């Protein structure tokens, strides 16, 4: 008998393609290659006359939390709850836990890229002035004061349709950003991250023993996620970086993409998906999207999953999945069947 060759692992080509496409569009938008709508402003509009004072939560902090917090949370939960059966088990335990973490984290990254892309597209399509627009841009129409601006726009009730920014103390990026108020990117990203983590914690920690200390930890972790999203959203209004309706719209956008990612990309984090997705990465056939993973699990179980356990039923597969099986109800089992 020849020596058994290890199976080569790979991330499905479609996942890389979608991710590359999203990153390419983001690059085009952020570099200013994609022109946005040209909107004007009212001379007497006091809502855009605030002074720019900086950010309570900077963009670097927001993105740092968005990228780092989920991978830490997912890795910790996956290592604490145990490893799913039916999945390739080659390599050290840490490496196997990382593979299970990557199953969910890669879908999160795709959803994160999509919500950022949707937010940036909306910003350039709407081109709404920020609350500190006049202070940052210093439009030429306001160079000689408010009364002169009103005189220039006497026929349009004080509305200036054409203007040029005269502030040379800030970068071109800051000038373009001064008319990207709607919707709030901080709100959309933070709400998306919070929604994803809350759903993940609710599903993946549900199978732990009822008296386990982790069951008391779960609601506190979910509360931290909600508090983070709320803090990010409210700080944008307090910093005069966004109007209130910008934050509301951004929060709704983040919640929508969070629901899409958790429900369709990750299949509501159904426990049995882990083995299916890892076997797909190892080269086996099957659907690669979260929306079809549950269906693939049912098909594989009925035809026999190619692991050391031949022809397992759905109940047997879930019951052997460490502590996750405790969260599966009879109704859920009937739905999978």
Automatic annotation (TrEMBL):
GO cellular component annotations, sorted alphabetically? plasma membrane
User: GO molecular-function annotation terms?
Assistant: phosphatidate phosphatase activity
One family name in Pfam for this protein: PAP2
Name the UniProt key words of this record, in alphabetical order: Membrane, Transmembrane, Transmembrane helix
Membrane topology term reads: Multi-pass membrane protein
Q: Low complexity: which segments have biased composition?
A: 284-296, 315-329
> Domain named Phosphatidic acid phosphatase type 2/haloperoxidase: which ranges?
105-262
Looking at the UniProt entry, the stretches that span the membrane are 61-87, 108-126, 182-201
Q: Which GO terms describe its biological process?
A: phospholipid dephosphorylation; phospholipid metabolic process; signal transduction
Where is the region Disordered?
A: 284-337
Q: What is its main location?
A: membrane
The signal sequence is none
Q: Where in the cell is it found?
A: Membrane
Q: Family, per the entry?
A: Belongs to the PA-phosphatase related phosphoesterase family.
* PANTHER family registered for this protein in UniProt: LIPID PHOSPHATE PHOSPHATASE, PHOSPHOLIPID PHOSPHATASE HOMOLOG 1.2 HOMOLOG
Provide the protein name: Phosphatidic acid phosphatase type 2/haloperoxidase domain-containing protein
């Amino acid at each position: 008998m020849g020596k058994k060759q290890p199976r080569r692992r790979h991330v499905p080509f479609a996942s890389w393609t979608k991710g590359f496409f999203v990153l390419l569009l983001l690059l085009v938008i952020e570099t200013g290659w994609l022109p946005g709508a040209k909107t004007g402003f009212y001379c007497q509009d006091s809502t855009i006359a605030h002074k720019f004072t900086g950010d309570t939560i900077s963009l670097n902090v927001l993105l740092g939390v968005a990228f780092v917090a989920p991978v830490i949370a997912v890795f910790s939960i996956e290592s604490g709850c145990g490893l799913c059966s039916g999945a390739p088990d080659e390599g050290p335990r840490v490496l196997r836990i990382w593979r299970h973490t990557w199953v969910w984290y890669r879908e999160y990254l795709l959803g994160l890229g999509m919500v950022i892309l949707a937010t940036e597209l909306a910003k350039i399509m709407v081109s709404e002035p920020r609350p500190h627009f006049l202070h940052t841009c210093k439009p030429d129409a306001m160079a000689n004061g408010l009364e002169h601006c009103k005189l220039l726009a006497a026929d349009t009730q004080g509305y200036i349709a054409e203007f040029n920014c005269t502030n040379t103390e800030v970068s071109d990026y800051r000038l373009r950003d001064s008319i990207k108020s709607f919707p709030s990117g901080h709100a959309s990203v933070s709400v998306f991250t919070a929604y994803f983590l809350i759903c993940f914690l609710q599903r993946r920690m549900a199978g732990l023993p009822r008296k386990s200390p982790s069951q008391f930890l779960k609601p506190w972790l979910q509360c931290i996620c909600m508090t983070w999203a709320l803090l990010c959203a409210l700080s944008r209004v307090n910093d005069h970086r966004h109007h209130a309706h910008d934050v509301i719209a951004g929060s709704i956008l983040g919640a929508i993409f969070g629901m899409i990612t958790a429900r369709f990309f990750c299949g509501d984090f159904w426990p049995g998906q882990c083995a299916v997705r890892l076997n797909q990465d190892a080269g086996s056939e099957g659907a690669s999207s979260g929306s079809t993973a549950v269906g693939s699990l049912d098909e594989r179980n009925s035809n026999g999953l190619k692991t050391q356990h031949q022809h397992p039923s759905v109940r047997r597969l879930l019951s052997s999945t460490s502590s996750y099986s405790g969260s599966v109800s009879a109704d859920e089992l009937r739905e999978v069947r």
